[in-house]
Structure formats: structure tokens, C-alpha cells
Amino acid sequence: MKEGIVKAYQHSFLMSDELFDSPYDFFKDCADDLEAHVNYLTPYILRENIKPQTDDGKFNLNYLSVDYCLGVDLPIYVSKEGNTKRAFIIAEDPLRNPNDERIKVSQEHTLLSTPFATHLDACRKQLKEYWDFHDALLNNQFNVYITDINKIWLKRNNVNKERIPGDLAINFKRTLQAEIELINPDIIIVYGKKSAMAYDDLNIPFNGVLKAFPHPSKSANGTWKKLFQITYPGIEKSCTAQNKVAYMIEQTLISA
């Protein structure tokens, strides 16, 4: 699995075959340690060791600049013995908080995580909209692979995040297609309007089921409220994590 992920990401990055070995060992250790969030240090890779595959000079300069916060999420595959199906979940990009003190001290690096920090038990408990759904999938015969449409999050303080150059976006498509071929999912689940539109634009061949949900975060509660009103007329549904998860797992099991 790790070898396949590395090959997929080499469509988007100039990097060695062994670059992800240490980070993935670290993430696995964190997943097995319920106290890993205590005194947690954000893992990183030197920027020059994982360069984006783009000819856009301005983007490359900003990518290497310590004035820009840079994040890359490594995709994560969560499995349960005996499960026979595969769900492939796509988010937008590896969002970071530039004001996080743990990030500030390492801003000269490429800061690593997994989507929704799934490797940390504390984050799984805190981000219930995501983990409770992923856990429900695990308990309904699905192993779960989580990744991003855009593989880089690059942002300077008080400025919008950097636009992904066209040639790099094409390489992200190649990476995503390689990931889909690696996992061979029964269902692809897309979080949020931006990710859904981006995935549609990629036009990647896929013969399984595709489901697009509003982004599970609280910032999309307005969309969730409208969806609940349409889906459950006459029934008041608040935008709680529990209600979002119940809806997503119900729709997933119906579709797949």
C-alpha cells in the first residue's frame, strides 16, 4: 500500500522512494498511542526534498519561501479485519492553521499530517463529523481510504491560499487517478462543493458509485439545514454531528 501511494505521489512531487517511510512509521505509532497528542510535534519534510511538479516559477519560489505556511497530508487507509468493501473519501486540501504555535516553530518545512488528523485519537474524538462516519463505514464492511483533491496547501499570513498552477493541477489528477486505481473502491465519497466540482472537472474514469455530501464541518451547516429540510419534510433536524453522520451512512449504504 505505502509503495503504491509513493508512486502515485511521484506524479505530483519530485521525491525519493523512501521519503514517506519515517512519516508513516510516526503516524502508525501515533495511531497506537492514545496520548500521542500530548506534547505532539508536527512531523515535517524539508521543502527541497519534496518539490511540486510544476514549471510555474512564482509558485515554486513561494513554495520554498519561509514566509509561506506549507502543508501536505499523506493519505491514510483505515481497515478492519474481515471487511470486503472499500470507500474512497476525497476532501479539498490539507488545511493548516498558520497561527498554531506547533506549526510556527517549523514553518520552514513541509508540515505533514493525515486528512482530518485521523492518526491522532484526540482529533478523532474532537472531529466527530468525520471520524464517526468513517467508523460507521468500518463497522459496515468498508475499509476507508482518505485523501485530498489538492495535495498542497500554501498560504502566507493574512493572504488567500495560493492558487494551484494548471500543470500542477494536471499532476494532482494523475496522482488521484493512481490512488483510485490502487484502492479500486466500491464507492467514492466527496466532501464539499469545491471538492465535488474539482472532481467532476478531472473526469477520472470510475465504474463504481459516486456520492457527494456537503462538507461535514460546521461552516457548511447552512447547506446541511437545507438538505435536511428537503430530505425529511416536516421533521426538525439540527445540524449535529450525529445527524450528519446518520444521513451520510444511510445514503452510502443505500447506494453501495
Automatic annotation (TrEMBL):
Pfam short name (any one): UDG
Domain Uracil-DNA glycosylase-like: start-end pairs: 86-220
InterPro entries from the UniProt entry: Uracil-DNA_glycosylase-like
Designated name of the protein: Uracil-DNA glycosylase-like domain-containing protein
Source taxonomy: Bacteria, Pseudomonadati, Bacteroidota, Sphingobacteriia, Sphingobacteriales
